[in-house]
Queue: 4 jobs
Job 1
Amino acid sequence: MKYIFYFFSFFLSLTAGAQDYTSTWEGMFSYHNVSTITQGNNKIYAAAENAIIEFDMATYQTQTISSIQGLVADKITAIAFAPENNSLIIGYQNGLIDVYNIATKKVFTIIDIVEKQSISPSNKKINKLYIKQDKLFITTNYGISVFDISRLEFGDTYFIGPNGSQIKVLDICVFDGSIYAISQENGVYKATEDAPNLIDYNQWQQISATNNKNIFVFDNQLYAISQTNALVKFTAGNFVMQRQFSNEVTSVQPDANFLTLSFANKVILINTQLNNQLEITNLPGLPPNVSSAIHRNGQIFIGDHNTGLHKTLFNTPNNLSDLTPNSPLYNDIFDVEVSPGHVWLTYGAYSLSYEPINHARGVSHYFDNYWTNIPFDDLGKTRTLVKTTINPANPNHVFIDSFHQGLIELENHTLVNAYNTPFNPLPSLLDPQYPDYRSVRVNSGYFDAQNNFWFTLTRVKKGLYKLSPSGSFTGYDMSDIMPGLEDTNGGFSDLVPDTSGNLYFGSKSGGVIAFNPRTKQFGRLAGGEGAAELPSDNVLSLAMDNNNQLWIGTFYGLRVLYGAGQLFTNANVKANPIIFEDEEGVAQELMAGLSIFAITVDGNNNKWIATEVGAFQVSANGQKLLKHFTKSNSPLPTNTIVDIDIDPITGMVYFATAKGLVAYRGSATASAQSLANVRAFPNPVRPNYEGLVTIDGLMEGANVKITDIEGNLVYEETSPGGSIQWDTRAFGKHKVASGVYMVLITSEDQMETKVTKIMVIR
């Protein structure tokens, strides 16, 4: 048997044409961290990490542009508007550039810089984009490149450092027939704009050794902002200081009347006499962290790293309007938890060795198409909030685990209990070197049928706790099953139940732990070849599927335990790999060698698996690959998926990453209790539709027959869960003709029937 990752291999490839995913995906990126702003065609564009906010000054409408529309979704470092092409140009930290056509909403991705082998990855960052007619000047950490926007073609690249070396160019502008470029450490360079051989570094003359960070034209004069935050003017071959600022200038935007300067805590508009015309200090955020600002037609638009995009008026500068799209607090997500209609995000974190990362962050809750962000201060200032457990009996009641300060309880977004004081019954780990150090590390929870809340604690003898509805805590000593637990740097991962109410949770170095709440008995599955056959005792994720089989995700691969209850009676239980045959008939192991960060079971008992090479959907038994989403074939902003969860009613699949949340409109829904709400969609099936027809609202095991109007059978399937899909073909062969097709549904016990119709138009 070969332990290789063959069937699910992937290749990252960059293509020029980007795909629009709006029909099947939804972007849920955060827009609270705005880094830069530009304008064009009566619209304001703001870069928010890896997506764009578009504000129409005529209609006052705000829209977003993200990987759902085809953007690269990497970290944006520069944007510019090309008026003659009606396009927004977006530059990224990794050297990629997107050209987004405003009219057609099409994206063209420029890959040339990324593919340059002679340039190190660290030098490919796009620093600034400067547009003159059809010509785009791109400043980078290696020099300057030129791109023809109309023809979508790269031109020359200028290495302007000493002897043609690569140097970091921060900004560029064209003035009075010359190109001026500023480098971080080599001063200011100048070249004649129409010189025939600008690729010759001798054409670029160093005209000043002064180190600046911005260069621009204002009031028909050439200015710069120095590294020491002085406003300097180029006069008689020298840069002469005009004004000195005491705070760091974070951005500069000139227009016909004013020079708009932003600082972390204020925005200043300077007139052509270089005097302050307006100063804005009443800014959001405690404290504010302004990244950029721009003035257009009496309106000032302000971007902040924490609070997003805002607008104020020249005549009433202290009255700000919030233009930030409703969105989660952050893109850097640690955990997503979903129940019907509800999505919760947490942003705390711990390392792979289960050491807490000290984040002071709030949490986000999505319900009824609206994000409610609960700030850190409203959560008892509880740090390192890592996971949410939603009460199935009351989705507005949640517990949120802190991997440093215990446990908090919310109801209707209000903190009702905080179990994070020295007087609560939850024990802290003990550190002999620091006896006063207190760290209560809670991770993973579960509500049982009696509404008891179960959760795990790290580095204490009683590693499993139960909180009753009356508020009493009961701890269970794990010393016998895992000796020395309180002395290690270990931790516990997912906590899941089986159909008998037994609990299972993963550990960093002890495999899988099982607990029977009725007998108070622990069990354990640990060890590699010759023992439990786990590829690693570092268990990152667990999922109990609809057949009561335990799927185990480890640091080095995947296993399944059939009949997990054996752990209480059989000391020789072994986990099983999923083995399939590849196209050549060679036996392969599913997910061999991969770190499995999350496993989620959908309504049809298929498994969604989060890895560092994308997200996989495999069939109920793991023998068939159904989907493999990566950054190259989906709007995922990265291939590393930290968590996956599914809305059992809608089938929506949520993918949490360190670069944002995206959701896929899946079709597998949970089994219904009756056939009353059966539906088929899309309906009618129109001529240009090439996808699948979904029939949901089904009971598990229901028989579904599809016939033409004359009663001829064209398709039949038994529902594995709450839905099936039909490819509009007669048993997978030829496409059926236009007409009305009857869907005849019978429950497994034949006590219920349902008839619906599908119209097919060819």
Note: Residues 174 and 180 are 6 Å apart (CA to CA).
Job 2
Amino acid sequence: MGMDIDQYLSLPSLPKSRIKLRIIVEANGVQYEKSIDGTQEHLKSFINKINSKAKKEEESIKRNMVLSTATSSTTNVLIAKNLSQLSLNHHIHARNQSKEALADPRIFGVSLDTLMERQKSDTTTKIPIFMKHALKHLFVHSLDVEGLFRISSSQADLVARKVSVDKGELQFSKDDNPHLVTGLLKIFLRELPEPICTADLYDLFLASSDQITKCQSFDMIKKTLSMLPPNNKQLFQHLCHFLTFVAANSHVNLMNHSNLGRIFGPNLFWKKEVGQLDMNQLQATSEKVNVLAENLITHYNDLFEEPTPTAFSGRLYLQSKMLGHKKSVQWLALIDQERKVCSLDTLGLLKVWDSQSATLINEFNVCEQGALIYSMVCASNDTIWVATSQSVSIWSPSGKMIGEAPGEAYSLTESQHGDIWVGGNQVMNIYSLKDIPTEAGDHPIKPIGTDLFNQNVFILALCKVGKNRIWGCSSNKLLYIYDAKTKEILHKTEIHEKRPKRIAYIEFEDYEAVWIGGDEGTFQILNANTYELVHKIENAGWDKIFVLAPIGREMWTSTWDIVVRSWEPRTRDVTGEIKGNHSDAISAILEVPNLKGTGDPFIWFGSFDKSISTYINKGAADRESKWSNAKRSVPRTVRIGFSSRG
């Protein structure tokens, strides 16, 4: 009677009789076989030789993989570390096949579960890495592309790139054709062994489409979505979430919910039919899946209650990304009792948005062609002030010009006493808001005060500080500190910065400081009361500073390296870094209150890539509640100072 070798080895004492072994080793597609017999002690040396040879093979393969010189052939070696393994040949072979599957770099035609098993060590990525890179690339670089997903790339390019992806080349570059990326994404969905909706739930999804059409009810679709396997549901949600951003910018890319539904319906919902379908049935099914896909995009927030992990950038939860500006968006400011946000680009296109929903209300141009725009503020009387190389112009939110004062102007700020300070070429002009009308008309705009400077001296940045101070950074590297009421210069001191174009004031509890930065990339922190330099943060490789913005009890900065950093002002420690949703640096940051009263505030980013993104600052309401003594500034633009990236 035959006995399993594990039973044999588990005997209390092994007999001294001879043991017969038949060993098979497979390497480089060739099988090597040997039958031997002997005592257990005699066979140990032979088994050790096999193990030593196998170990050398493994080390050689690892070295070749590191050097990227591994050959296309595969090596499978059965390692017999002890005699008990020899009775489990079929289990060893199965494990080797599993390892081969994990090492297979193919992406297309592979099940979601297999793809996710390969990357299980990466706990932060919930969808196949290829899809993660594709969606991120399209979000950052291609939301403004007309006909996104509708226009196809060349078939030859698709085939060639598909081969590259299947070899493990998963990254995309900024210069990649967006239609090539969308084509690969659709091929990936179509070539899944099973549709993302799964064969088992296909009919339920179709039935839920009928319920949406007839009853306007989403109960069935929500229940069906909850029944999806975890990997399918994650990819479903990530894809639908991304498509909401595409549809939200349909005024630019011409791809609304309906157009996207027609494209993604057949790619998300399909079934391998055994028999033939007549044309009527095929058409009816097609209409159902199109409606279903459209509704998944349109009603995303109602159907998916849990946010996708990719929507988070640190503490910020991505809400929207808005396109439509023609040049870099360098100014953001609140107006109309914080109910609206104004954004201005360097071509002079000003857009007015709803501050809570980020929907566009109005847009108009605020300067003549050829003029350089340097600054913008929204005043407490709901007028918009724009400083350019030709004049200071004043506008209503409806787009009507109220007045204009000729002369080059670089910087703007509203004082604590309702005056607008304008830093110009060799002069500081001050205008009282009480004298400025709020309706359009041919009104003379005259300053109530003027301060002259030396020749070729410009005030590049202005900021109100405390209860009665105005600070101004000049082109001759001097800091001017004014009494906001008497307009007198109280103090002058040198700034160790070639072009100090950014200035911001932050206060909470017993801390008050002014941060100054510029093209040299250094942060100078001054005591707001003594005017003394407290600390200097050297350029750590981030190069130019574009934004200084006080957010709560932190100072947020944006620099040339496309990173937004939050700082603890007292310790000067970086508490967070935010990047990844824009292809260029952030040029404006604005904190927008949640007017519901209890929710977390919003953060708006304007970028050199001509887009605006909005976020919920998760947990900020709780953090603010802990700071009962924290003081909040009145509505302001948080990017104060001279513009221009050069």
Note: The domain at 129-311 is CATH 1.10.555.10 (Phosphatidylinositol 3-kinase; Chain A).
Job 3
Amino acid sequence: VDRVKVLSKQQHAGGTWISQAVTNIEKSLANNEFTIEELRKWLSNFSVRPVFTAHPTEAARRSVLSKLTTISELLDQPENSIRNSRLAEAVDLLWQTDELRLGQPEPLDEAVNSLYYLDELFEFTVPDILDQFKNELKRIGVDVPITSRPLSFGTWIGGDRDGNPNITADVTKSAILLQNAHFTRTIIHLLDELRQALSVSTKLAGVSQQLLDSVSQDLELLPEIEERFRRINIEEPYRLKATAIRHKLLITQARHRGALPHAPGRDYKDTAELLSDFTIMRDSLLQHNGELIAGGLLERLTRAITAFGLTHATMDIREHSDAHRSLLEQVIGDFNLTLLGKELTNSKNPDLTKLDDPAKKTLATFVAINDLIKRFGPEVIETYIISMTKSADDVLAAALIGKYAGLISLAENNKFAQIGFAPLLETVAELRSADLILENLLNNPQYREIVRLRGDIQEVMLGYSDSNKDAGITTSQWEIHKAQRKLRDVAIKHGVKLRLFHGRGGSVGRGGGPTYDALIALPWGSIDGQIKMTEQGEVISDKYGLPALAKENLELTIAASLEATVLNRKPRQSSNALSSWDSCMDLISDAAFKAYRNLVDQPDLPTYFYQSTPVEQLGNLFLGSRPSRRPDATAGLSSLRAIPWVFGWTQSRQIVPGWYGVGSGLKAAREAGNEKLLKELLNNWHFFRTFISNVEMTIAKTDLEIAQRYVQALVEPKLYPIFEEIKREFELTVAELLALTSKSEILGNQPILARTLAVRDTYLAPLQLLQVSLLKQVRAQSAPDPLLTRALLLTINGVAAGLRNTG
């Protein structure tokens, strides 16, 4: 609530983030840094897409979050006896609501949770943001067509198969049906408001013949429209049209639920058909002096429909590259890039009836995608993501299976590509090979044709979590930054528009941090009008829990993407300066990587990690449907997913993934005579400044005095040297950060954040001491005591809430 009030004051004083971004663009335009024609071209396909994932890092239940939202809304109201009574009621309900989930959520449970936020965004936030976006760009001479999608939403929930055996083709279909049901329910509420507003009478204003003909056809094909409306709205065609749209939406939902065929004129085949009905009303108003009405609620709702579509969000499908390789080896044997290319143009498909069960499941996914696109239209699923892409073969393998399922055709007389394919680069080795992978892909004539059929757009996803676990935060961040440069250059060489998909988590150790700073710090040209980024776990409720916060977050993201697209199209420093900065950063990264690997490669580290953190309790929190370990996992750290890796370190306040190795890296650069250069990097390089700021924030959340309580109570004495090593690196990192930033204390220039963290620590300290005691008791039991386990899980929830990070 306090954040909302502060944001309101800031916007009142300085304007919205979007207006500030457009003002900056306007200044550059006035300085002749580019032409209005260039600006219009750059923004012609502008697209920002937050993608909601089911990554299990939201510790709080939906029931708890909704009650906190109610309390926040009540606190924002003027104080009086009625408000105070309702506030007391809401708090009492919160106290009597169990914070812990009863069991493991199923994928559709996760879908319902995310759809709550999409419903709220549709109803309260997105229409106004898109209206503001249109108006701000209009003042500098850029028109935003009503059917453009500058903002849209994506989802992985029901589509992310990598390591989650619970996601099947049927689950994907059910998730899409659920999304459509929520879209229908939300839009009908808004449509009723529109129907009430559009009381334009034919006695007072003209209407187009197209609208009259459309309404006449609706009345004929939709006998469900009540006689009362036909009678009382006979001279109000806009109301009759809105009534018809309402009925067609409900029939569309029923058709999909019953797997019935499309009935032209009675339901909507896709979002385009729905939008055409709104366009008929808008055109009629514009032709008959109704400009203000056409540009008001009707246009806001039309733009929102364009953003969300019939399925509320566009689903991505993700699967591990091994799944595709296994399937193809069963039907074509060993393969390489050349063979895959030839198979893509082969008019015949091999026999697919003798696949083993895992391969059948993989093929069923592609068949389901084809079915869903036929039923809902092209925006239902647009991208297939290949996890652990190690070479171009991995991407072409998925494309070939897509061909088998009827999603791809390169036949001369019937070419189409109904989905695009995106490699996911997750480890340092893959990030370093990013340019080679993309170069080999785009050099393949068959794959290049698929990209052409998809509008010459190639999406590449960057994985922050696994690269961090693999190499530490410094090397991870640096290799991701360099990979973006290389991918940009390859895309430019081949005349392809690059869309980068940033797989950022909530914590700094998984790529999190302030969104605006992160986008502005990206390499020049890497946001060429299009960007996607994941919104995961506790980040979703933190950013979208209240309409005002959702508005702030989306405005920030759009504004940063606007500025990056227009104002960051060329290098911001000389090639000589950048070369020296790169060399210095390479030195920092190498030393940090060595320090990090020296820690995680110790044979006893897995034992230390499991003993000094409550990571074994993660499964008991029932955060998500996906297992915390990869298939065929061992007890070591290699099979442990990045989320529990960060979760454990965070709960015990060691937070190793967010800072470890940074001190060694900075020290190596300083001792190599780069002290002055480091200051230059901090002052003049967005990437380095953002990196240091995020590390500093994580250092402020780290508390090794608390961590020592965990170690002394829970860890075998022979493993104490590992903690001492962590402590030495922490002290070194603090010292190097203070020397670099010329500050006397961490967060010295951010007093509000420092005070916020200090206040939280007052509540966190007793919770964590209690957690240490409970962990010791639970681990000493031969049979688990449900009461003790419950108390322990409640402390984990509390610590997660206090740190605003789970994993």
Note: The beta strands are 47-52, 154-155, 314-320, 381-387, 408-411, 414-417, 420-425, 457-463, 497-503, 530-535.
Job 4
Amino acid sequence: MHRDVLTPMGATYDSQYGRDQVEFIASRDEWFRPVNLPNGPDGALYLCDMYRAVIEHPQFMPAELKERSDLNDGIDRGRIYRIVPKGTKIDKSVYTSLKDATPEQLVAALSSENAWQRETASRLIFERQDASIQPQLEQLVSSGKTEQSRIQALWALEGLGKLSDALIEKALKDQSQRVVAQAVKLSEPRLSQNDKLKTEVLSLVKSADAPLRFQLAISLGEAKDGPSAVDQLASLMLDGSSDSFTRAAVLSSAPEQTVEIFKSFLKQLQARDTKQASQSGITDAVNEMTAVIGPRLKPEEIQETLSLIAGLDSEALLPLQIAGFEGLGNSLRRRGKSIAEYQAKLPDTDQQKLKTFYQKIVDTAANPKSPTEQRLNAISILQFVGFDTSGETLISLIQGRNSQAVKIAAMSAISPYSDPRIGEILMDGFATQTPGMRRAILDAMLSNQDRTNLLLDAIEKDQIKISELGPSRSSSLQRHRNPEIKKRAAALFAAAIPADRQKVLADYQKSLKLKADPLQGKLVFAKNCVTCHKIGEMGINVAPDIGDSRTKTPEYLLTNILDPNRAIDANFFSYTIITIDGVVHTGIISSDSGASITLTQPEGKTITVLKDEIEEMKSNGVSLMPVGLEKTIDPQQMADLISFIKNWRYLSGQVPKEIAKPQ
């Protein structure tokens, strides 16, 4: 059982270990299963220990676990631990002290240091609906010694239907902002009818701390007020911009007024200090506000938003222009629209400002001396400004000697465009690209139907191995909405299995039915697999991790062992590098620093080659795992190996041996 110490952080909390590297409660008993921890009436913690050999939800339990002989062991057992501070004496009277308590005693219990006492008293007050205690509760709101007691009294009055506007106004002036936050919450249904109460709530905005700011952001949407509420919500967005929860609260509070909030936000920001414009919270706020405006698809709102973005034309406000443009552009694209559709209807002055902004973005993206983050942000905007404006720059970024991050960003930015040159440019030199680049190229090719057909042409000509696509892209192609593309893809996948692999797989199907010994399979694994794979403490992870085999079927494992090239993660293709002095290296690219490439080879060996020393680098289009393991592993050994991969975690002797059987 873990314990954290919480400290306020924005609208929520940060946490740290109660004791570094020491759990609150731990046990050497492997059946120890703590599942619940309520407070007790005596102030103690009560820990419920389910005490079972196996604790898994049936919905998420792998098939083999459901057949464990010890699955229900412990079903007739369980423990409850009572946890108290050292030296604490038990007061048994607290267990029944509220059962027959008088109304006055229940009110007194609202001031208890014990949360169970306060919450139980609050529940009983609500259930009994005894309005005679209204005066005592009102007195507690005014003079309760703790903020918890004053909060409980407020909600008790609300539950009795006796909470007055006057008492809420009084609570809004409480010295504790936690009490004030609850008073704000209780005021919500009254704000649209009581102007005085609304004024009191609005007056809290400037002095609010982070949690109160969050509550105000949620509640002010109920004010149903025009400029005053909008300005205060904008102020909350500005002051709370570093907290994602506060930003979300503002946007959910009055979504139909987001344009007005955005306008007020920019006005207040520029009146304070434009140096704040580059702060991440401020740019996040602008991005999120414009992202809410776009999907509403109201032309007047979108055009006004574009005008506001165009007006951010000083150098200090450029980060806001980028953030706002990106938020609006992405949200419109998700609705099948583009910024260009709305930009054409803007006044000439705004259109000219946007053209100037576009040129500034193009120049920043093209300039290799621009800071990397600023350059990447600029490239991301080029996907929204039109191919006529951004196309040549994006092409030069893809073809030039730029960092991998810049090239990938340019590929992502160019993918929404349909210029016929894009496909050929992306495919040029595909075999020499790194795994990250190849993924970006494939994604850009598949984002457009014409380019998808071009990619399928390359696969048909064996210029690209179909295994390069990987499982997710392969699945998308086979479910493509274009029936012709779907048909072509299906034919290519059907033809992709070599005849010899089909025969071997057919011959080895019998291994799935043989009686298997996972302990013998462990020996097979040690002899054939440990140079590239790791299970438990055995082997080296060069290739994909196969240790978590619970959701992998025996059929899946057999196919991947005997036909390793059928579907390969792009991170695990074999590459060959030839250096300028003729040395040849083969392995998986495990690191690309920009200046060098690191290959990982069997047995975990690594070699780093400077890019300036590389004469040629090319993907071999196949897995590093060799084809032909059937030559060294017969069907019985294959059955044993698969059983070991499936059941290795059950071979330590801590669970019954009979569950370690072929799966």
Note: The first helix runs from residue 103 to 109.
